[in-house]
Every structure is written in structure tokens, then in C-alpha cells.
Amino acid sequence: MTELVTTIIETAAIEPGATPPLPMRHLYLVDGSGFIFRAFHALPPLTRADGTPVGAVLGFSNMLLKLLGETDADAVAVIFDASRYSFRNAIYDAYKAQRPDAPPELIPQFPLVREATEAFNLPGIESDGYEADDIIATYARAAQRRGIEVTIVSSDKDLMQLVDDGIRMLDPIKNKAIGPDEVREKFGVAPDRVVDVQALAGDSVDNVPGVPGIGVKTAAELINTYGDLDQLLARAGEIKQPKRRESLIQHADLARVSRELVRLKDDVPDLPPLEALAVRPADPNRLVEFLRTQNFRTLLSRVESRNANRAAATAALAPVAAADAQATSAEGGAAAPMPAATAANYVLIQDLDVLDAWIARATAAGAFAVDTETTSLDAVTCELVGVSLSIEPGEGAYLPLAHKVEGLDLTGGAPRQIDRDTALARLKPLLEDPAVLKIGHNLKYDAVVLGRHGIQVAPADDTMLLSYVLDGHLHGHGMDELALLHLAHKTIAFADVCGTGKNQITFDLVPLDRARDYAAEDAEVTLRLHRLLRPRLLKERQVALYETTERPLAPVIAAMERAGIKVDPVELKRLSRDFGERLAVLETEIHRLAGRPFNVGSPKQLGEVLFDEMSLAGGKKGKTGAYATGAEVLEVLAAQGHALPARVLDWRQLAKLKSTYADALVEQINPATGRVHTSYALASTSTGRLSSTDPNLQNIPVRTEEGRKIRRAFIAEDGHVLMSADYSQIELRLAAHVADIPSLKDAFRQGIDIHALTASQVFGVPVEGMDPQVRRRAKAINFGIIYGISGFGLAQQLGIPQGEAQAYIAAYFERYPGIRAYMDRTKQLAREQGYVTTIFGRRCWVPGIKDSNPARRAFAERQAINAPLQGSAADIIKRAMARIPAALTEAGLSATMLLQVHDELIFEVREAEVEATAALVRRVMEGAAHISVPLVVDTGVGRDWETAH
Question: Where is the 5'-3' exonuclease domain (predicted)?
Fold first, then answer.
């Protein structure tokens, strides 16, 4: 290292008369360039209101806040790459030549990451001609010479050559320290020989050539045998393996070049001195403004809370701080560093007295987080294995109830655990205590599990639903994702404790020590998420939506899932046979139309028949070389009058009905109840709608006779009937309300046929004696408009020329200009703020509203138009569902709510209570919202679902 560089890095100017700075003790060097890529790939896509992608910026900012809050470092710097070219390209022009360009959505985030660094008042350092790793190496070695402890915040393998006495690495995603042992585990050699191993093995990512035929393992063996690269190359002729020997001799110069490429420079000139990296407090106003601009609401809340706490603590501790300063001055030494945050303290509960102590603490606290561990994701059939609890951040407990192994030795005896019935009897009063808040993540699942053991969990808060109400479809709402997003904490993966694939074990076979850490972490992280998310409800005006819609709905849905619905297996098997026979007939007809037999279920073979052999127009090949034969392609061909694609569409629909419902539903009948128990996802759609899985009962096609036959297999118990309660044209009513269309609102108030009215006003024909075909077209326009339908889409739906369809739409807007105004207003609002809202304030995010691709942007605009209507309808039926069970109980009625299919509810009702139940359900559903048009609910009853509907 040159004398000039040494002077620049190791000294700092001190003005005459100034107090010399305290000795630097700990330096953090953050690999900014490496971390932004890790944050980008670790976190879900996220955009701010103007459409700018900011997911990686959020991950980066979270990491900085976490790091600054936990470290004892008194100096921190964030190091960046100035460009993708460095002095190494002069040594080897193909260096990093194969690296792809950064993803387009990451490029605008690079400058924002630098802005984030400045907002946190941290030095962001880069140098032309050098890589970030070289700058890190320069600072690390300079600090090491001065006895300063160094932590390199990165997991980059190229930086592992720097690990040494006083220099360690920290993986910020896994929160894992990397020292000499971890380096040896990865490379097979000590850190000072990593460069030699990399020189031999090369690096395909950076296009470092290395020696052909030698990988990391072989390179480590060679270096451990010969000492270093120079000795190895000098004695290469001694190697016994012919291919290895010849490769080393032939490519010796390539190995030496590779060493220069991977060896980090530790004398980068013209860098700020170490003292310039000293931690300085951030300007709260500047940091808050940056976070607010990026729409980082949770992070902003944490910063504001931390600032408020810091201000209060500073005021309270001012006298103590003054005394400490005097003592430090008198002793001539430095104050002790603030200790870093300790790891979470997780314990096992294996004795009743310990369980009682935790119950007492939870009761006194008035709130705690709870989670269950089970043998499967099916809440209705799984076995309860254990319960975890957390009362304070940083601590948690796991209560094992049905584990089969004690420790890592799977052959050991049964573990020590409290009898399940005894433990649950102790927990029941706490879990049902109205004065104690239970906090969970997707608590509906735990409520179903515990409900099977006679425990009704209440009152409860759900962090998944809090996140969903606050951030909607901006990101997923799984606990692992939220922990990374909001806490910068990577949780223990389920695969880490249970394995994957055929080697996966159920949780009851997980040893207690591993089960404790995994399960207790779930509860503890949930508690921390709750403390971050709950306060945002008030700040972001989402309290009413959460408290009146999402929160009260969760236990209602849990009860519906436990109840299930009865299915007739005999009818399903009969349908399966019938569908099978009809599929065979269709297949024969398809083969006749094709002129030869082929596999109808093979898209590749179908494409060849349609476009190569039959020469139909419109064939497009994908990347695999096969023709696209999706439903949209076949529908266009069928609309043109081609019989074969029309028959294939029929075949596909029938095949799906057979496999997905007629066959699969028989297997999904719970043998203990004789019923099918679907699971509802509460936080999976952009508009607030529920979705149904395992099995999906919301997608049974009802516009075809075959689909309606599937519904006939859903039946009521003896002495009961199924009752359907369905909102009539709710989205059209909401469109009339939010767009404020007087003629449509009057029609709904008077009970006029809205489709006939539209046909009359748009097409100029009288309502009396109207051609049903004309009304059908008006109906298609009415429903199509609220989905932002195009002229092309309407033409396809009605089977008319596109110009004629476009004329219909133009006539509609001319008659109802308020609809056009609503659509334009809504799209503009979505562009300005990134979301639209329902009548209850739910935010429906529209991430593609500013997409540069016209097709994707048009799709987002259609989403923006429909989302307030579909979302408001979802909110209304959710509000009704939350109120119905209590209303039934109060009225002394025994009906059970079984299913929700968008705008329809299905009940199982005693035959003697049908009339009273129908009247009550209509009253509650029609009163779930008060808008400028009446809500109307149609009810029907029958022994099976199809008849009831």
C-alpha cells in the first residue's frame, strides 16, 4: 500500500483546539451492491403509488434500520459498485462478460438505494475502476492494522478471503456470522488460501476461467497438499492423474490470471478516511420524508416510534448521561459500547407448573400470541402436535403434546410432555377468556384445530388479516414473507425441520429441540408483527374495515369449514361414469373431424392437427416450438365456425368436471363426517373476495348442464334442505350507486328489469314485446361494461362483428355518460395513487396501471374499473356473513351457514324453519350496506344445491 493511500485512510484532520475523537472500536462495512440484489430476489415485487418499483429499496432500508438498531458499531459505511467495469477488465477482457443486464424493474432502484443510504446519514462509497469488494478490502485491512474490529455485512463468497483475526462477515438475510470455520466449510481451506482455490476452480458467474476440469473440492485438495498455487503449478508434473496434470500444466497462466481476477485490492486510492465513517445520527425529517415518498408505511411507523422513544429516553436519562460523561472523563477511558440485541429466548413447556406460570403471565399481560403445530395443513383432519406462546418480543415457549421423539436420535423413547387433554384443559380458560386478546397469524386455521378439541378461541387479532387490510395485494401475507418484509428477519423454514419431498416427516416426528425453535419463533414473530401492524390501522384509517368486516368474519369462516357440506358419493360415481362415456363419444368425433386419431389431451399434438394438418389460421408457436392451444385460441377458432376446436373445448370442460369434481370429490369426503370441508383463503385476492381450495367449490361451472349436475351431488341431511341466498345484480346496483346514474337508480328502486331498460334506452326499442335476443345483448353490455369490456371482447361474446359491438358500447356511453365519467375518474385515480377503493375504504392496488406495455396497462385499467364494484360486493357479503350466525342464534333458529360462492350463501336448514330462516337471512343481507339503490336477495330451497339455486 502506498504511503499516500496509507495517509489518506489512516489519518483524519483535526482542527486546532478541537476535541480528539474517541478511539474507533467496531467498523461495519455493508456490501450495498450485493445486498440490493439479495433484497430484490428475497422480497416480493412492490411498487409505490407512481408505479416505481421499490421492493429492493424496502428490503435494503429494513436492513439498515435493523442493523443500526442492533449493532454496537461506531462506524458504518455502505459500499457500492460504481459500474460493471473495473481494472480487472484490462487484465482479462471477458471478465463478467456473461453477466446478464440487471432486471428492468431493478434499474430504477439503484439510485433510490443510494438515496436511502443518504437518508440514514450513512456514507455511501464507490470508486471508478474498482469493485465494491476492493473498497471493502481496503477499509477492512486498514481498520485491522489499527486494532479496530471489522464486520463485513455480506454473504458474498469473494469476500471470504478477508476473514481473519478481527475481521468477520455477517449474512444479513440469515443473520448468520461467517468466520474461519464457515469459510473452511465452503472452500475446504483457510481464508488465506481461498484466492488459490478460486483461481483453480474459476467462477462461471463472473467468467473467471480457472483451470478446466477442476472444481472447488479438487482445488481444495490440491492446495492443502501443495501449500499454495505457486507451489502447485511448479510441481504440477508430479500429479499422478494424467488429465489433471496436463490441464494444470497447459493452463498454468490461466490460473495465474484467474488469481489476479479474484484477489481483492486492498489499496484503493482516494477514499475518505476511516474517521469519516463514524456513525452520525440521521436527520429525522429527512429520513421520514424519504420513507413517506416511497410509501413505506410500516417502516415509517417504526422510525417515528423509535424517534419518539429515543427522545423520551434521552430526556429521562439526561442526568445519568451527564454523570457517565464525567466518570468517563475522570477515568480517561471510553464508555462501554451498547450491547447488541440478544437472540430470542425460546423454551420448552414440559411440566404443569411451568405451563401454569405461562398461563398466569399471559392472563396478566392481557394479550399474547398463539400458534398450533399439526401433522398436516388440513385443519379438519390433522392431529394437534403442540401449541406455542409468546408474551413479549424476544421470548417464546413451545408446549409439545404429541411428539414421538425426544431428541435428534429418532430411535429414542417417547419425549417428556404433558398429557394433551390435561394441557388443553388448562389452556381452555385462557384461550376463551374475553379479557385476554389472542394474537395469531391465519388464526382461522388454529381456531378450526382447537375447535375440534372443544376450545373456542376469542377474542382474537390476526396479523395476516391486519396485513391484508393495510396492504392488500401489494405483497403476500404469509408470516415468513412479512417477517422478512417488516422485521428484516428470516424465519426458520418448515423444510429445515421437516425436510422435503419423499424424505419429509410430519411435525410429530421432529425432535423437541428443533420443534421448539421453529414453533416458538412462529408465535414470537407473530407478536412482533402485531405490534407493528396494529397501530397502522388508525393512522391509515382502516380500523372500520378491519373491525367490522375482516376480524369478525374469521371465526364465522372457521365454523363453516368445520361444518362442511354433505356430498352424495353414489351420485358422483354415476356422474363420473356418465362423463367418461361422453368423453369417449367426443373423442371419437374429434378424431373423425381431424381425419386421424391423436391424443386430445396433448396441446402439442392438437396444435399440429389444427395448424399444420388442417391449416387453420392464427397458429402461433411458443418458445418450445409447440403451437399455443389455450382456451382463448380455441374460442376464436370456434367462433369462426370451426367444429374441431369447439368439440375440443367441450372435451376439456367435461374432462375437468370429471377429474376435478366427479372423481376428486369422492376422495375428499371426510370419512368421519361424510362431508366435504373446503378451506377459504381470507387474504389472497386483490378485491377482498374469498377464495376456496381443497376442494375449490367456487369454480364449478353453472352455465352448462354438466356443471349444474355436479351441484346436484351436494345435498342436505335428512330432515333438512339446502337454502341459497343470492344478491341480485349486486355489481350493477353498485355501478349505478358509485357512478351516480339517476335512470339506473330509479329503475332499481322501482324493480324494473334493468336489462330490458338498457336495451330500450340504448337500442330504442319498447320494453313490451322485446326480442329476447335484444335483451341478451343488453345484458352482455351491462355486465361487460363494469369489467371494462372492449369491442373485441363483446364481439366475441355475442358472436357479432367487432364494429357492431363497438357501436353498441358507444351507444351505451352516450345514453349513460356517468358510466364513462366514472371509468375515466377511476383510472385517473389509480394512476395517481396506485390503488382504488371500495365504498368501505378497502384499497385495491393496481400495480400495472403505469406499465409501459399497452396490453398490460389496458388490463390494469380494466381491473381499476371493476375493483371498486367487485370489492364493494365482497365487503357487503362479508359484513352480512359476520352478522348472520348471531342473528340466527338470537332468533332461535338452527340453520348452519355452509358455503360462500361470491354473491351467494348456502345454508342447511331444518324443513320446519325454512320460511323464518329465509326471511331473517334476507333481512340481514339486504341491510349489510345502505346505498342509494336497494339491495335485493333472492332465496331458494331444495334437497340439493342445484335445486336450491
Answer: 24-280
Q: Cell numbers of 350, please?
A: 414440559
Domains annotated for the chain, with CATH where assigned, are: 3-183+264-277 (3.40.50.1010), 346-564 (3.30.420.10), 686-697+710-741+832-949 (3.30.70.370)
User: Is the pLDDT confidence value at 807 over 90?
Assistant: no
Written as one letter, the residue type at 537 is L
Burial (CB < 10 A; 0-12, 13-18, 19+), residue 294, is: buried
Average pLDDT over every residue of 321-343? 33
What does the block give as the cell for 402?
404429541
Q: Which of 269, 273, 277 is nearest to 128 (CA)?
A: 269
Distance (Å, rounded) from C-alpha 619 to C-alpha 271? Answer: 60
CA distance 783 to 773: 16
The per-residue pLDDT for 410 is: 43
pLDDT more than 90, % of the chain = 50
Closest listed residue to residue 257, CA positions, set 308, 203, 183: 203
Enter the C-alpha cell of residue 755.
Answer: 336489462
Candidates 608, 486, 480, 484; CA nearest to 535 is: 486
Query: Crossing angle for the helix pair 817-833 and 854-890, nearest 10 degrees?
Result: 100
Q: What is the pLDDT of residue 563?
A: 95
* CB 463 within 8 Å of CB 485: no
Cis-peptide into 695, omega within 30 deg: yes
| pTM recorded for the entire structure | 0.71
Residues 815, 759 contacting (CB under 8 angstroms): no
Q: What pLDDT does 5 receive? A: 33
Residue 198 burial (10 A CB sphere; 0-12, 13-18, 19+): buried
Residue 402 · residue 387 · CB < 8 Å: no
Give the model confidence (pLDDT) of 741-775 as tens digits.
898 899 899 888 888 888 888 778 887 878 888 88
Question: Is residue 66 predicted with pLDDT exceeding 50?
Answer: yes
Find how far residue 761's CA is from the centre of its chain: 46
pLDDT of amino acid 308: 52
Higher-confidence position of 480 and 804: 480
Is the per-residue pLDDT at 811 higher than 90? no
User: What are residue 395's phi and psi, to 5 degrees?
Assistant: -145, 150
Residues 6+ apart with CB under 8 A from 579: 654, 655, 657, 658, 662, 706
Computed over every residue of the chain, the mean pLDDT equals 86
Cα 593 from Cα 613, distance rounded (Å)? 12
Predicted local distance difference test score (pLDDT) of residue 344? 56
